[in-house]
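Work Package 3 (structural annotation) set out to generate three-dimensional models for the target panel prioritized at the project kickoff. During this period the team completed the workflow that converts sequence records into discrete structure tokens, so that structures can be stored uniformly alongside our sequence database. As a representative example, we reproduce one entry of 447 residues exactly as it appears in the project archive.
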Amino acid sequence: MKIIIAGAYAIGSHLAKLLSRNNQDIVLIDDDEQRLENISSDYDILTMHASPTSLAALKNAGAADANLYIAVTPDENLNMNSCVMAKAIGAKKTVAKVNNYEFVEPEMAKFYEKLGIDSLIYPENLAAYDIVNGLKMSWVRQRWDVHGGALVMLGIKLRETCEILDRPLKELCKPDSPYYIVAIRRDGDTIIPGGNDVLKMYDLVYFMVTKQYIPYVRKIVGKEHYVDVKNVMIMGGGDTAVRALKNMPEYMNVKLMEHDVERCDYINDQIDDQRVMVINGDGRDLQLLNEEGIHTTQAFVALTSNAETNILACLTAKRMGVRKTVAAVENLDYVNMAVSLDIGTIINKKAIAASHIYQMMLDAEVNNVRFLMTANADVAEFTAHPESKVTKKRVFELGLPNGATIGGLVRNGEGHLVSGGTQIEAGDIVVVFCYNVRMEKLEKFFR
């Protein structure tokens, strides 16, 4: 697949990292030579120093034969214009990043498609969706619904209350067990576990489970005492916060703290909801936090533009008794530090956007894919085709690449966990957790 990326900024750089693992034919265009040098030294991609709105540059980059053209510079007008040009000279599919929610309204999709823009990405909206989804389960670090929730993957931090510590997985994950452990994140390393591996305190463990057994998993990991989120505090009133407010469940009450008076007025104009209170103040002010009821708050979400501020604010909220904390960490270099400090859920809207675009680049066999930043791994849904390799043998006989494990499957709309003796059938949607595995190696099993 030939892919052209316009913009060597955070999203473009992260995309290049994801794609370089899969031997894709990638050209990265940017008008800043230094940004290109920083990326080309790390990843196996071709770079071009040129403007993405130069017709000559697009032709030289091979846009006429491109399967996918992606424009992810900070300038939404440049992104849209370059997509229109790339489509006009032959690019099969175009994607543009925008900074305004109005552009991604569903009724506008056909209009932009006529112009030559097949898909628009608004990172703030994608991040807001992840934040709201995370708040629905206070005891979970990450949640990923597979095929509309037929299967659910939960990332859970284990504490001393966990009932299944220090026992080999072969005792825990039996063929009739209601959950399956697909990965463990421990001391900065990701482990695809075997039967002799054990769970340790402070592990971040990824469980695959069907919806009806989520309460059971909650019990065995010792999280039943975590109170469900009803009261939320948000620090920072940027676009991500506004999108999150618009999508909050009806049973949640939110207090948003923003230091800029004009921004407070703007948010009040945008949000007509009695459950939302906008406060002009600094979310780092301990007196203000106490006055506004931090001790009766179940979740604290820090969404300022400063990663250090968000990390420190979440640490403070935890010390004041808040169980669930969410921090926006836009500097990717700080993500591992935030994880090691036990912040809670980490949100990086650029990585989320890159992951969303990433799934567009994979073959038709892949229905959906999610890059899990904290585990540095992918979770992908594959459809098993008739006569494909996965339908010929039981799971334990397939010889999957090291670093890959099948966590479950969806058959006729119903989720099922997978054991070594499971026989995959044509039409099954199979969920694969993969760490340091090229996606193309897995695709061969499903064709």
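The longest helix spans residues 76-88.
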